[in-house]
Structures are given as C-alpha cells and as structure tokens.
Design goal:
The complex is a heterotrimer of chains A (about 260), B (about 260) and C (about 160). Chain A has ten helices and ten strands. Chain A has about 260 residues and is of the alpha/beta class. The radius of gyration of chain A is 21 Å and the shape is globular. Classes of the chains: A alpha/beta (about 260), B mainly alpha (about 260), C alpha/beta (about 160). Chains B and C meet through helix 2, helix 6, helix 7 and helix 8 of B and helix 1 of C.
C-alpha cells in the first residue's frame, strides 16, 4: 500500500532522513516509532504529500506522492484519512458537522443520507450522543474519537494516525487502541501509526519500524523488536535513560567548565 | 556604519519579500474568487463577522468623532464668524479623510485582529492541515470567504461611520451650540459633491482590501504556536494601520 | 449551524444599515437630488467674470435658495461665461427684467448667484436669458481699484484697468 524508497531530506542543513526504505502491507497496522525529533511526523507529511522529499520517493497506492499535481494529490487524499495529534476538529462546527464536513464538501448527498452516515460513524466511536456538542466541550480522548469518525467518513483505504495516544488517560487510550484495531480489521483499512508509546504500539501493531538518526534502526513484529539485542532498540523499547541516544546534550568537559574562571 | 546600512538594506529586502508574498497570496485569492460565488453562505457568514460585529464600535466611535469635530470646528470657526460652514467643513473632512481612515483603523483593530487570531489558531491546531488532508483547499474554504467578507463590509462600515459622524456633528453643532440648521445643511450640501462621496467609498474599499488581505495573510501564515498567533495579531493591526495611512496619502494625491 | 438564522438576520440588518447610510450621504449631504431632480425650468445668464462659481452652486433670490447652477461654459464669440441654472418650478413668478449677480457667502464661503427681482409684469419662462448681470468681484481687482483710487485721488477719479490675473 505504501512504499518508501531511498528517502533523503534535510531542513536548514540538518539531516532528517538519510536513506529510508519501508513497506506497508495492505490491511496491516504498521507503526513508525522513534525518539522525539527523529522526523516521524515529517515522514507522515511526506506520505500525505504535505511535504516533498529531497530525493527518493513515497508511493501510496501505486502513485508517487511527490510527483503528483495538485488535483491528483487532492484526489489521492480523498482516499486517505488522517488523525492529527490533537484531533484538529474545526472549532466553528459541532461534532455532527465536523464529521459531516468531508461529505458536504465532496458530495451532493441528500441530507437524510448524510445524517445516516454521520450517525453510523459516530456510533462506531461511541459518540452518537455527543453529536450536538462543540469541540471545546470535548475531552482529549473524545476529540480524537470524533476525529477518527471524521477520518473514516469518506471510507478511506488508508488511515494515518499522528501520535494518537499523546496526552490521553489510560481508559481513553484503551478505547482508541481498540478502535484502531477494529476499524482496521472490520473495514479492511491499512493503518499507519506514528507514536512513541511502546506498550500501546506493541499491543496493536503488526509491524514496527524504529526510526533513529535518519534511518531505520530496526523493523519487525513487536516480538522481534522486544527480543532484539541492538542497543538502540533495547534503549527505546525499555525506556533506558542512557545509551546510543545520550542522556547528556553535547557539552564541554564538566570539571573543566566548573573550574574555569567566569569570563 | 557599514553594518547599519547593511541592516537597512536587509530589512528593506525582507519587507519587499513579504510584500511580494502578500501580493502572490492576493493573486491566489482573486483567482479563487469565482468559486466563492457558488458558496454565498460562507461569505455572508464572514460579512456578519467582519461587518455586523464591528457595527457597535464603528457607530460609537463615529458619533464621538463627529461631536468632537463639531466642538473643535465651532470653536475655530466662530473666531472668524464663519460657523455656518461648520457642516460643510466637517462633512468634507469626514467623507474624504476621517471616515475611511478611522473606519479602516477600527476595522483593523476589531475585525482584522479577530481574523488573524482565528486563522492563526486554526493553523496552530492543525485545522488547516486537517482540511488539506480532507482534500479541501483551506485557502478557498477558509481564507477566501473571510477576505471577501472584509472587502464587502468595509465600504458599508465607512458609510455608516460617516453618516453617524455627521449626525454627531449636527447634534453638537445644531442642537447644542445652535448653528442655524438651514445654513448648516445648505452649506454642507453646496460644499459636498458626489465625487467626494465616491472618493470616500473608493478609499473605504481600497482600505478594506488592504486590511482584509493583511489580516488573512498574517493569520493564514502564522507560526503554529501561541507566540506565533500573538505576533500575527499584532502585525495585522500595525501593518494594516501603516498601510492605511500610506494608501490614504497616495489615494488623496491621486484624487485631489 | 444552530445560529445560521441569527447570522443571516444580522448580516441583512448590517447591509440595510450600510445602504441606508449611503443613501443618506448621497441625498442629504450633497446637493444631488436622486430621482426627482428633473423638475423646474432652465435660465441662462452671461457674465464677464464668474470668479469661483461652480456647477451646483445655489441660486437665490432675497436670500432664499430657489435653484442651482447646472452648467458653466465659455462662449468664444463674445468671450463671456455662459451659466445655466435650473430654477425650482414653484418659483415661476420671477420678473423677466430681474438681474443676476455673483456673490460670496460670508468672507471665505462659496460663490452663488443672487437674483434681484425686477419690476416687470411678465415672468421668466424655460430657456430664457437673464440680460442684466453683475460679474463676480475678484478680490485682487478690488484691491487694485482701491489702490489706484487712493493714488489718483489728487487728479480726479482713477480708472481701474484690468490687471493681469
């Protein structure tokens, strides 16, 4: 479904990706993990055509995203859904209208049908009763569920999640986890999750790609990664404070600096 | 010394680049304008936000500007025994200069800053990116109606400001300091020509385009942080005000 | 969506208010008469000098505003200014030997045409011409005249000659 080949990218001279290859199987849940600042979100933005790589390419559904024109890109996006970190609900509209938004923009369906579709999707995420609430009245977990309903409303073939667990309480997290797995299996959607929550990802993902220092440090099933001896994988999976990703930001010699006379 | 010149050249180049980007943004907005005709409701909503919600502040300020103009004008004119032409002078000043300029400044402070912070917030909370991901062009769906709403509301706000201000002039001039109403109005009528009103409205429209463009541009391109939104809002008010005053000079010179 | 109606009403109100303000400006602040301006009759007058008279200036008789100047042109056969004015139809009994002059409102005000009623029993009708006219007083000339008369007080009356303008 999604194939990434030889991806290189840098911003202001800082290298973000130096040769990334990955392959997302149709119908699977694939996680992209890695320490903060390794460009996980940037990778997502390239898959959705919000950013273009310096070299290499990203193919989604057989189309090279970086080479698409504007209309083709919009066309491709109609077949994708994306869940933003905080839901990114439109604050002007209530829950119902948020979910109905893509339908109203892209289709000329009669009001009855729109209502039917929206209520079905809201029922799936368990928020049919919240249809009349405004986004400001929702908790973080609810907002993300509404966003999921909205991402699903056009029946996409690919769902992309950006940090879906960040800042959620354990119960909401469990709900979102179950929904991800459910929508993936029930609707035959391909899912890509960007996250750094190890426990949650291990319980939901089929394949994990671990990103570090601009390249893929490890790839495989959750069991593969948990059993790996590679230092970076162990540091990340077990949350060790020091390792290949150092605890200390690069600095001059500690004692030397303390003894130095103030300038 | 050399460094200072370099700084000045550098910041001039930056301003020029910003101006260029803004003009390109305007081009994109104008190119998309025909599409807005198909969604009049979106524009109506924004006329409401930019116009109807600014009504109270415009009317209040108009009234007080008119009244103070009358007091000042009366004080000055009565010294040369020409208080009859108070209406004429005030009306000319209001239609040609004060009306459009003050309305634009108030518009930038009220509607412009609201627009910029609203769009900036939508940028910061990924709402614009989310729209893009839903294959909806946020420029057309969000920026364009707001721009058009502002552009359409400004001339009307200008007219309302001027009318209320003249009412204020009349209130002080005729009701309070007892200038003869007949000569007040007839002097005004013989002094103000239709061309003066056109001038006021043209200015109002041009200022409306400038202030709306600046607000929408700054908000739409705000840095996606709390600080970015604040900066976009401040810049909107400052740049709009400066642009209004500069444009006013240019337009006045042209239409003199 | 819930407040759609309120927004539409508010917008409607705003637009109506704006248009009303525009209408007020055009009809009340300027001399324009929208729609009803084609009544009345036309008179013309020739002046040697109209000073700062402008189209739209009032025409008055005994201080009462009875019409306005509609057109000013220059006739190169006799080098005089031709002023067209429209008089409101209710003032139809103006003697046809009345004379017209150009005066200034106040010291610095606009110029207007003042008509002094004559004694004739017949009245002006449409397209008539006012034969007796007094030109506008040009301040510079007035001062020039005054200076000359001061200078020439000893040797009789001083003739004011046209100076360069």
């Amino acid at each position: 479904m999604v194939v990434v080949r030889g991806l290189h990218f840098s911003i202001n001279g800082r290298v973000i990706f130096s040769g990334i290859d990955l392959n997302v199987r149709r119908g699977s849940v694939t996680a992209i993990m890695g320490p903060s600042g390794t460009g996980k979100t940037t990778l997502l933005r390239m898959m959705t055509g919000q950013q273009r790589p310096d070299s290499g390419n990203v193919e989604v559904d057989g189309q090279d995203v970086g080479a698409l024109g504007r209309t083709q890109l919009l066309d491709l996006r109609r077949r994708m859904g994306m869940l933003f970190q905080n839901g990114a609900l439109l604050t002007d509209f209530d829950v119902f209208e948020n979910v109905a938004f893509p339908l109203r923009e892209h289709t000329r369906l009669p009001e009855r049908l729109i209502r039917h579709i929206v209520l079905t999707k809201l029922q799936t995420v368990g928020l049919r009763g919240a249809a009349q609430l405004m986004p400001a009245e929702l908790s973080g977990g609810m907002a993300r569920r509404v966003a999921l309903a909205r991402a699903m409303v056009m029946d996409p073939r690919l769902l992309v999640y950006d940090e879906p667990f960040a800042g959620l309480d354990p119960i909401s997290m469990g709900v979102v986890l179950r929904l991800i797995r459910q929508t993936n299996d029930a609707l035959g959607i391909t899912s890509i999750i960007v996250s750094h929550d190890v426990q949650e990802i291990c319980s939901v993902a089929d394949t994990i790609y671990l990103l570090s220092d601009g390249s893929i440090a490890a790839a495989g099933t959750p069991q593969d990664l948990n059993g790996s001896d590679a230092q970076i994988v162990r540091q990340f999976m077990q949350g060790l404070p020091d390792g290949p990703v150092p605890f200390h930001y690069p600095a001059p010699d500690y004692h030397g600096q303390l003894l130095e006379r103030a300038p | 010394m050399n460094g200072m010149i370099g700084d000045i050249v550098g910041s001039a180049r930056d301003s020029l680049a910003t101006f260029g980007r803004m003009m390109m943004f305007l081009g994109r907005l104008l190119a998309a304008t025909p599409a807005a005709v198909l969604r009049p409701r979106l524009v109506v909503h924004q006329i409401y936000n930019a116009g109807a919600l600014s009504l109270l502040i415009i009317m209040t300020c108009g009234l007080f500007v008119g009244m103070v103009l009358a007091l000042l004008g009366y004080d000055l004119l009565s010294r040369v025994a020409s208080e009859d032409i108070l209406g004429a002078g005030a009306a000319l000043a209001l239609t040609k200069q004060l009306g459009p300029v003050l309305t634009a400044l108030l518009f930038a402070g009220r509607a412009g800053s609201a627009l910029a912070s609203e769009l900036g917030l939508m940028r910061a909370t990924d709402q614009l990116a989310a729209m893009e991901m839903m294959a909806v062009d946020p420029l057309r769906r969000v920026a364009l109606p707001r721009f058009l709403g502002g552009v359409l509301a400004m001339p009307l706000l200008t007219a309302i400001f001027i009318a209320i201000a003249i009412f204020g002039v009349q209130l002080v001039g005729v009701q309070q300091v007892k200038i003869d109403p007949g000569s007040f109005w007839s002097q005004m009528r013989s002094a103000v020509e239709l061309a003066d009103i056109y001038e006021g409205l043209i200015k109002g429209t041009v200022f409306g385009i400038a202030c709306s463009l600046i607000a929408v541009y700054e908000g739409y391109n705000a840095a996606p942080t709390a600080e970015g939104i604040g900066r976009a809002t401040t810049r909107t008010v400052v740049v709009s005000s400066v642009a209004t005053l500069i444009l006013n000079f240019i337009l006045t010179a042209f239409m003199l | 969506m819930r407040q759609t109606r309120a927004i539409e009403v508010g917008t409607g109100l705003f637009v109506v208010l704006g248009l009303a303000a525009l209408f007020f400006m055009v009809t009340e602040i300027t001399a324009e008469r929208v729609g009803v301006q084609r009544h009345g009759y036309l008179l013309s007058a020739r002046f040697d000098q109209i000073g700062g008279l402008k189209v739209g200036a009032p025409v008055s008789i005994a201080g009462v505003n009875i019409g306005r100047v509609t057109d000013i042109s220059f006739d190169d056969s006799d080098y005089r200014a031709v002023v067209q004015m429209r008089i409101d139809e209710q003032y139809s009994r103006i003697p046809d030997d009345s004379d017209a002059g150009i005066f200034t409102q106040g010291l610095l005000g606009n110029q207007y045409i003042g008509i002094a009623a004559g004694l004739s029993d017949t009245f002006f009708v449409d397209q008539d011409r006012i034969e007796l006219t007094h030109s506008a007083l040009v301040l510079e000339k007035l001062i020039g005249k005054f200076m000359l008369s001061m200078a020439g007080r000893g040797n009789g009356s001083g003739e004011a000659e046209e100076g360069a303008e």
